[in-house]
From TrEMBL:
Domain Thioesterase, first and last residues per copy: 41-115
Gene3D superfamilies xref list: Hotdog Thioesterase
UniProt EC number: 3.1.2.-
Top enzyme category: hydrolase
Lineage: Bacteria, Bacillati, Actinomycetota, Actinomycetes, Geodermatophilales
Species annotation: Geodermatophilus arenarius
Protein name, entry field: PaaI family thioesterase
UniProt keyword Hydrolase present: yes
Gene Ontology MF terms in the entry: hydrolase activity
Family under the similarity heading: Belongs to the thioesterase PaaI family.
Length: 127
């Protein structure tokens, strides 16, 4: 994570900011702009997938030591309704932490309504 609250990498380039991360949970803020929309005029599913992957990665990182690096090994996103331009809240949390694998969940909301739910498995790699 960068010092300015951006998660770095692709999600940071999209404009996501880390609002909170610690104790196996994380929250991202994101402003949906025109460049994030698909041809139908709704939030592109790839942006949603990036946001949930990033927030869950941040949640896992809040539980790891210096020598461990989480890597996504499985990601399932269920899209519940289309997103529109405006602010999003993305929350992730660690559900189960094993020795080598960690299971997480994430939710995306806009104006208090669920847009997507995701589940992921992260492998814990050694640096």
């Amino acid at each position: 994570m960068a010092d300015d609250g951006t998660p770095g990498g692709f999600a940071g380039r999209l404009g996501a900011t880390v609002e909170d991360a610690g104790d196996g949970a994380a929250t991202l803020a994101f402003e949906v702009r025109d460049e994030h929309l698909n041809p139908a005029g709704t939030l592109h599913g790839g942006v949603v997938a990036t946001l949930v992957d990033t927030v869950m990665g941040q949640a896992v990182r809040s539980t790891t030591g210096d020598g461990e690096v989480p890597a996504t090994s499985q990601l399932t996103v269920t899209y519940l309704r289309p997103g529109r331009p405006g602010p999003l809240e993305v929350r992730g949390r660690v559900r189960t932490r094993g020795e080598h694998l960690t299971i997480c969940e994430a939710d995306v909301e806009q104006e208090g309504r669920a847009l997507a739910h995701a589940v992921a498995t992260f492998a814990l790699l050694e640096r």
